[in-house]
Each structure stands twice: as C-alpha cells, then as structure tokens.
Write a structure and sequence with these properties.
single chain; 277 residues; mainly alpha; Cytochrome p450-Terp, domain 2; three-stranded antiparallel beta sheet; 56% helix
Length: 277
C-alpha cells in the first residue's frame, strides 16, 4: 500500500449568478451576450438576480415604478453629500456616489425597508385577523388600528407616516397604489399600508401623509422580495439619481457655493455658553 496521500481537492464555490471563461460569459444560467443583452431590461435583471426567478411583465412594471419613485428627490442630504464629496475629490466619482449611498438610513431611503419590515411584522402578528378578501377595507382598518395603537404604546413611530416636504400628500403614493392595482399586485402589505393611512388620525390625533418611500417598501414586500434586502433596492434606485446629480454638478456646479455658504457664515459659539437662548 502506498504511503503517499492523495492531493487535496480544490475548494468549490457554488453560484447561480455569473460565470465566465475565455470565450463566454453566463449569467443566471443564460448566455449573457446571446440571451440577455438586448432582451432583458435592467430592472427585470435586478429582480431576477435577487429572486432567481424571471419576473412577469406585471412584476417588472411595479418594480420599475418603485425604482423610478426612489431615484431622486432633489437636494436631499444624500445628493448634497455626493456633490460635496465630488467637489473635494473630483478624481473619485465612486467615492462621491458612495458618500451619497452611505446616507441612506432611517430618515432617507431606509424608510423603504423599515416600512416593509413593519408591515410584514403586523401581518405575522395578526394572521388570524387579516381578512381573506383583500378588498375588505373594514377588516384591514381594524388590523391597522391595533398596530398603530400598539406602536404608540411601545413608544415607536409607524414607518412610512409623514414626509419632511409633502405635508398633505406624497404624489408617489397614489400613483404606485394605482399601478399595483392595475397589475393585480396590490397585496396585503399595500392594503395594510392604505388602512394605516385611513385610521391613524384616530390614534395620533393628526393626519399625516403616506410616505412614498414607505409605499415603495409595501409594494416590494408584496412582490415577494426579501425583506432584509429592501433597502438595497432603494440604494439601487438612488445610485442612478446620484449619478444624475453628479452629472449636473459637472455641468452646473453648486457644491462650492454650498461649501462657501456654510464656511463663510459659520460663527464661533463658546461651548460653555447657554446655546438654547
């Protein structure tokens, strides 16, 4: 018997995404050049990459409506961060885009995931109370009322309620609800979110608009996308918006004006003084 040990086997790293060799590139088990390029839109591909299932045309329409809704919202902190980073390091476009994406959190962009997670949690907690008929508004109102009351008693905010700019109605919300309804994809998350919009004044004593980022989270959840990745879709959309912001910064820069406005108007405050007066 030989005392020589057999050579160790090379490790394997399984993937269902992209592979390449000297002559070809495959993606999702398809030939990238022959089967996908020119045949599949970017939004469709993004959905497919995450779910490993090719979306239907209805799913693509709702998904891409979400991406459009989240791409840009003007001079938000994320856009300003990207522009100022580009001012500081014009040689690092990737750094400027990254700076804008890093600002996607609980106040901007992150609401998409927070709302989807919240709605999914309510649906799980109230499984026995959720109506069998999706159009049973009264039953959804009862579930929403219970969820809002519980959130208030727990000292928690309801994600997706309110907007810093749109005080009466976020124009993205009714449009995305309409698109989802047209495509037959207005599921339990969107129904519950609508109900929250109807009943929250009874608990909070004031009326707040349903946030567009929040309704995007509800729509993504109804599409069956992983809840823990919902913020990623918001960032995917905002990357396009940030690239647009930086293109405009090249054409018509405002970053230096923003920097100089803050710098030239900064005032020293004694840290021991009473700043509240």
């Amino acid at each position: 018997m030989s005392n020589e040990s057999s050579p160790p086997q090379a490790p394997t790293y399984p993937t269902s995404l992209g592979m390449s060799d000297a002559d070809s590139i495959s993606l999702l088990g398809k030939d990238l050049a022959a089967d996908l390029m020119g045949h599949v839109g970017f939004g469709e591909l993004a959905f497919w990459l995450v779910t490993q299932q090719r979306p239907t045309p209805a799913q693509v329409r709702v998904f891409e409506a979400v991406l459009v809704a989240l791409a840009d919202h003007g001079f938000t902190p994320t856009a300003i961060a990207a522009r100022l980073t580009y001012l500081s390091a014009p040689d690092s476009l990737q750094g400027a885009i990254a700076a804008g994406l890093l600002g996607g959190g609980s106040r901007f962009l992150g609401v998409t995931e927070d709302c989807g997670q919240f709605l999914a949690g309510v649906l799980e907690q109230h499984r026995d109370k959720c109506p069998e008929r999706l159009d049973d508004d009264a039953a959804w109102d009862a579930v929403a009322l219970s969820a809002i009351q519980h959130a208030r008693e727990s000292g928690r905010l309801v994600p997706g309620l309110g907007h810093p700019v749109h005080k009466h109605q976020d124009p993205r919300t009714p449009r995305l609800l309409a698109i989802a309804a047209q495509e037959g994809l207005k599921g339990p998350h969107l129904r519950l979110f609508e109900a929250i919009g109807r009943v929250h004044p009874r608990v909070l004593g004031r009326t707040l608009p349903l946030n567009g980022a929040g309704v995007c989270g509800a729509a993504l959840a109804d599409l069956g996308l992983p809840l823990e990745l919902l913020r990623g879709f918001a960032l995917l959309a905002r990357a396009a918006g940030l690239l647009g912001q930086l293109a405009e910064e090249v054409r018509r820069p405002i970053g230096r004006d923003v920097y100089l406005s803050v710098d030239r108007n900064a005032t020293y405050v004694d840290p021991l003084s009473n700043t509240s007066s």
